[in-house]
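Blinded run. Sample ID left blank on purpose so nobody reads anything into the name before looking at the predicted structure. Input follows.
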Amino acid sequence: MTIGFAGLSHLGTVTSIATAAKGFDVVGFDPDAQRCADLTNQKLPVSEPQLSELLMANRSRLRFTQDVGALTKCRVVVVSLDVPTDASNRSDLTPLRKLIDHIVPALGPETTLVILSQVTPGFTRSLKVGGVNLYYQVETLIFGRAVERALQPERFIVGCANPSTPLPAAYAEWLRAFGCPVLPMRYESAELAKISINFFLVSSVATTNTLAELCEAIGADWSEIAPALRLDKRIGPHAYLGPGLGIAGGNLERDLITVQILAEQHGTDVGIVSAWLTNSWYRRDWVLRWLHEAVLSKTDRPVIAVWGLAYKQDTASTKNSPALALLESLGQFPVYAYDPQAKAAVTGVTQCPTALDACEGATALVVMTPWREFSSYSAAQIRERMPGRVVIDPFGMLDGRALITEGFSYYRLGGQ
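Blinded prediction complete.
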């Protein structure tokens, strides 16, 4: 059986390759001829751990093309275009609608069309696709862990016109190959399920960050408290309990804004969403507050070293990155930055070839992205390159005790 994918952005690229890894022949369609050519030549448009190896191992089952007619013989066609957001984190569904309108005439009479792209509730039912079997499926990829999530999903949430009707045989066969539960429900429930998942994540983020800041104020240590919470069955071992710099990346923010819009339309209360957004903006500036107290208010011409530009590790994405917000605030000061993958054109910022190069002559070092690479650098290496003695390390990537022993002032989230 051949599975088709329409839209080869991050979502489509990862999911199509994962489908080939499960033994299916795959046709990946995208109007961008260059993107199709690059993928055919094993040149990926996105960066994800293990994705290049997975593509190489399954290239014989993958065909990438800008010919929409190649989708005609596919039993299942998955619309897998990432939906962009604007500066206010609102979804722009125009490119997605355009893509769907483009491919529907090419589909065969027995084709099942699956919308995998993230949409607002009500979108799927609004589509006009003739007699094609139409489903909505919740995607749950995570930047930096997308391959793992695509190959080993926790469950499939499937939106249906009629949840009591069995899924088409070809579609059911594709889902069974991943060996996880399938939860059929009406279109709107599935569309809101994706948002619901992200809401519970945001609530954990906001709660963790609020209590971690209190730890800093009263002398407690969040790293000591988190294990106790994980042993509580009502919270669980997989709870998101790592303090951070607010929410970023665009997807969580998109869902918060979407619900605010829906609540305004339908007259429901979402005051908690405004509180979460306010908390996130406040937490984003945690590094700047400590940097001002420890350095900027005490030094006439400080030089700042910044490790990490991506909004999270193992991705090149800088969407809503706290690091970029920090760089904008430091516009009057010399800044030397390093990130293993992400690039950012910010006035006054020099990007360096290595992390230690960024420390050369620095008054302070701030670690904005928890890349594993950063844990490999010792306090002695940093001391040799950096005349200043302030390290702000929100995620605890460095050896704080060693830095303090070397004479550094050291700051991390949730403790001293």
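Unblinding after everyone has recorded impressions. DSSP finds 16 helices and 14 strands in the chain.
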